[in-house]
Amino acid sequence: xxxxxxxxxxxxxxxxxxxxxxxxxxxxxxxxxxxxxxxxxxxxxxxxxxxxxxxxxxxxxxxxxxxxxxxxxxxxxxxxxxxxxxxxxxxxxxxxxxxxxxxxxxxxxxxxxxxxxxxxxxxxxxxxxxxxxxxxxxxxxxxxxxxxxxxxxxxxxxxxxxxxxxxxxxxxxxxxxxxxxxxxxxxxxxxxxxxxxxxxxxxxxxxxxxxxxxxxxxxxxxxxxxxxxxxxxxxxxxxxxxxxxxxxxxxxxxxxxxxxxxxxxxxxxxxxxxxxxxxxxxxxxxxxxxxxxxxxxxx
Length: 299
Ligand SMILES: [Mn+2]
What we know:
Elements: E1 8-14, H1 27-33, H2 36-40, E2 44-50, H3 62-86, E3 90-95, H4 101-114, E4 121-125, H5 146-150, E5 172-175, H6 182-191, E6 194-196, H7 198-204, H8 206-218, E7 224-229, H9 251-262, E8 267-273, H10 284-296
Parallel strand pairs: 1-2, 1-3, 3-8, 4-5, 4-7, 5-6, 7-8
Helix pairs in contact: 1-10, 3-4, 7-8, 8-9, 9-10
Manganese (II) ion (MN) binds at residues 98, 126-128, 229, 231, 243, 274.
């Protein structure tokens, strides 16, 4: 297993407007403080893309300002990720809340289309499916809707960013899923995504589950991107996230999953999200996020 051979380019996505609290905007800062560059070794750090503070814009409808900034920010991040892909390097996006995944994953889809490739598959390691629509969402939070948009369901805040970047839901595999709304369950089933819970991972073993997951996501062309949400881990080991969902992955399970992804030659983009330093204890979640990033990058 040789893993990723390309040069790695890191983008800090300081964006927290899509979740319940804004603490995730400081995720990239916490990961750098936790030794990211030392652990990754050779890489190019492109610095941070910082969201504007919409809450201080007086006299505006806060919901409209948030949607507007999400769209503006997503287009900026998408362009940055596409530039990395154009250079033939591996984009490594550090969040930030998961709504920024619309930009990363749309960039992967658009870049593939520009080269005449099929859209790559997607490994989504997360407690959630992020497949809500404006109609089905119980929370109204955009970080729970971005994958619906990437799979072709209209979500106005992501309409512009997914343009030309749609991904094939039949090549999307969820890993670690355990907190799915009823509406999402129906959407995910209809779209044909594969969903693998922590219980199934434990029952079958990581090797068997990952052979299946990588085979579905990589497809015939062998290309996939990966998104790792720290809330896929059990909150007892990764408390520094926005949504705590019990019953998550143990680190030994996650590390083996991440290593197997990092050893796959077809990974075209890596994303590590939802690190929330304001909920963390002694920086332990940020350190796990750094380790996860390194493993995903084949380091
Ligand atoms: Mn999540």
